[in-house]
Amino acid sequence: MKAYFMNPVLNKELKLRFRSGKTFVGILFYLLALTLLMVALMYVLRTSSPSGFFKPQESRLMFMFLAFFQLGLVLFITPGLTGGVISSERERQTLSILLTTTQSSFTIVIGKLLSSISYLVLLILASLPIYSFVFLFGGISPTQLAQVFFFSLFTMLVIGSFGVLFSTLIRKTIVSMVTTYSVALFIVAGTAVISLILFQIADIYAVATPKKVPSVYFSAMFNPGIVLADVFEPTVSEQIKEITGIKFPIWAAHLITYCIVIVLSLTISVRNLRANMKKGS
After folding, report:
1. What is d(CA 22, CA 18) in angstroms, rounded to the nearest whole number?
2. Which among 220, 268, 265 is positioned nearest to 243, based on CA atoms?
3. 53: burial class by Cβ within 10 Å (0-12, 13-18, 19+)?
4. Distance from the Cα of residue 145 to its chain's centroid
5. Which terminus in the chain has less CB density within 10 A, N or C?
6. Contact between residue 259 and residue 266 where contact means Cβ atoms under 8 Å apart
7. pLDDT of residue 275
8. What average pLDDT does range 216-233 have in this prediction?
């Protein structure tokens, strides 16, 4: 197992990525921006409070804001990091050299995926002390803190698997990145719009002929924003149960569905990596 996840491809990519000082300068500016954002939110919430104190409810609100900010960061940066990991090698005409090594297609794909998202993983882990500072004011539990970070890492892996898939299937890096960004946009905005439309239709028809609408559940379970909201507001899942009649937790359906997507995406990438070489790189 260690040979698969700590292979020469991953080692080389990590050394190249973290050798430059620009990497750590980027982390510094990200943490500074996140700290300034947190301080600004604390100031606004404290000054708008009648008592003039920072309450646990306001700490929870600020934590929710930071959690969704981090989710947006993952959805915005991951496609750019993973959308060209294979196609860029093909354009530089170095993919054929990489495939002549003793490394299997699986280790190459996994190495490229993990190395491409490693920088974003480091950003998220580096921001943990800032989230812990918010945690000290109360209003959130350690379980919610762990859930938010696990969910961010899982979403990163989902989008990253799409990026590797399109980078393997599509020969042009620009086209691959645009496709990956389009899928990420659909997962967030597209499924949200579809869920909202289905919810409104169900709400309209419920007045005349009350009935369950399962389609709302199957569109909402693909949306990471809805699932993240369920972490903070259990009423979200209760409303979905009431509308759809499906009692299975939406977060569990989200995890199971995207775990299958990750496995399928990586499997297709592995199978097509050398198949594309036969056509010429």
Report:
1. 8
2. 220
3. exposed
4. 16
5. N
6. no
7. 66
8. 88
Helix locations, the chain, DSSP H: 2-5, 8-19, 21-48, 56-82, 87-91, 95-99, 105-126, 128-135, 142-169, 173-185, 191-208, 215-220, 224-232, 235-244, 250-278
pLDDT tens digits for 68-84?
Answer: 988 998 999 999 889 88
251 CB contacts (<8 Å, ≥6 apart)?
A: 227, 230, 231, 237
Euclidean distance between CA atoms 157 and 148, whole angstroms: 14
Cα gap 140→63, rounded to integer Å: 8
Provide the token pair at 236: 């979200």
Whole-structure pTM value = 0.86
User: How far apart (Å, rounded) are the C-alpha atoms in residues 194 and 215?
Assistant: 10
CA 31 – CA 50 distance, rounded (Å): 30
Contact criterion met (CB below 8 Å) for 71 and 152: yes
Using the predicted structure, report yes or no on whether residue 281 has a pLDDT greater than 50: no
Average pLDDT, stretch 199-226?
76
* Alpha carbon distance 66, 53 (integer Å): 20
